[in-house]
Amino acid sequence: MTNHQDTYVGIDVSEGTLDVWLYPMDVLRSFENSNAGIAALIKYFKPYNVAKIVIEATGNLEYECAYALQSKGYQVAVMNPQFTAAFRTMRGKFTKTDAEDAQMLALFAHKMDPQVSLLPNTQEKKLKDLASRRRQLISMIVAERNRLRRIKDVDVCNSIKRIIAVLEDEKMEAVEQLLSLIEDNAQHKGNYDLLLTIPGIGPAVAATLITELPELGQLKSKQIASLVGVAPHANESGKSARKSKTKGGRKCARSALYMAALTGSRSNSALSTFYQRLVNEGKPKKIALVAVMRKLIIIANNIIKDQRPWEDNFKQIT
Q1: Do residues 20 and 97 share a domain?
Q2: How deeply is 61 buried, as exposed, middle or buried, from its count of CB atoms within 10 A (0-12, 13-18, 19+)?
Q3: Does residue 310 share a domain with residue 217?
Q4: Is pLDDT of 241 > 50?
Q5: pLDDT tens, 135-179?
Q6: CA nearest 297: which of 202, 230, 250?
Q7: Which end of the chain is less enclosed by CB atoms within 10 A, N or C?
Q8: Edge-to-edge strand order for the sheet containing 48-56?
Q9: What is the b/e burial string over 5-25, where b = at least 16 CB atoms within 10 angstroms of the residue's CB?
Q10: Rounded to 5°, angle at Cα 102 from 2 and 32
Q11: Beta strands per DSSP E along 101-249
């Protein structure tokens, strides 16, 4: 028999278990975090009119469950733990167990009605994983090179150099696989080629924007800037008006955009003119560079949206 009232679901994910809370029935069930467990969970939901499911982002442990549920038509929101933690604190709840977390997530789904997440398909997930692995390898290479500068012993230096060589090979392999996946997808390849027409954006940045910003070309200018974390947010209270600040956003995309803005403020005549004008007006260089990042992601968004390369009409940047 189907329960016709709206049901809100919170799922607390761990490596081996999915703890599921149904609201307002206040029912808790646990399932294995496995293909069989997820299949049983989907079957469990059939009698209910599930309005929204909230799952906390848990280092990719949540992906298989969230993607399977979304592919079955369920409205799934994968939430940043900072937001759900703030919700828990707001309610004055400090006890933290798997069951408590699942209950809190179900209530969050009901009270906050969060936006449904755009989850990557299997191929897009592999793209993200490869891009993440590339960043990890770069971080390890930098760490080893820093060690090499401080070590004088020949044997230790040789050991570090061997590790660096292996890491460099692994990085190149990750990049090749990443670019191969982009080449094999007509939409990704088209967008990748369009991004490369923008002076300042190279292969690494273009690949990062494609993997980390699937919304590129689908949002308005303010929305895409806010999503990346380069949109200014008002900071006012009563008669006090402080400087607007940029907050949040997707760190990986923002880091890639920062490198592109650094290059673009030197090599892209339109962006360099824009950057220099802001500096001449007295803006701190850091703020001017953030403005370049914002301008750059808006340009990239428009180029993908219109499916046309960098042209003269993009060169007049105000």
Answers
A1: yes
A2: middle
A3: yes
A4: no
A5: 999 999 999 999 999 999 999 999 999 999 999 999 999 999 999
A6: 230
A7: N
A8: 27-32, 17-23, 3-13, 48-56, 76-79
A9: eebbbbbbbeeeebbbbbbee
A10: 80
A11: 232-237, 240-246
Report the SS3 class of residue 219. Answer: coil
In a domain, 192, yes or no: no
Q: Of the ranges 106-120, 154-168, 269-283, which is most confident?
A: 154-168
3-state secondary structure at position 78: strand
Which burial class, exposed, middle or buried, applies to 117 when counting CB atoms under 10 A from its CB (0-12, 13-18, 19+)?
Answer: middle
CATH number reported for the structural domain that contains residue 105 in this entry = 3.30.420.140
Q: How far apart are CA 168 and CA 208, in angstroms?
A: 19
Q: Looking at the domain assignment, is residue 241 inside a domain?
A: no
Residue 58 is assigned to a structural domain of this protein:
yes
196 in a domain, yes or no? no
Number of residues that this document lists for the chain: 318
- Which pLDDT score is estimated for 14? 94
Number of domains into which the chain is organized:
3
Cα dihedral angle (306, 307, 310, 311), rounded to 10 degrees?
-60
d(CA 161, CA 61): 34
**SS3 at position 115:** coil
Exposed/middle/buried for 139, CB within 10 Å: 0-12, 13-18, 19+?
A: exposed
Domain that holds residue 24: 3-112
% of the chain at pLDDT higher than 70: 91
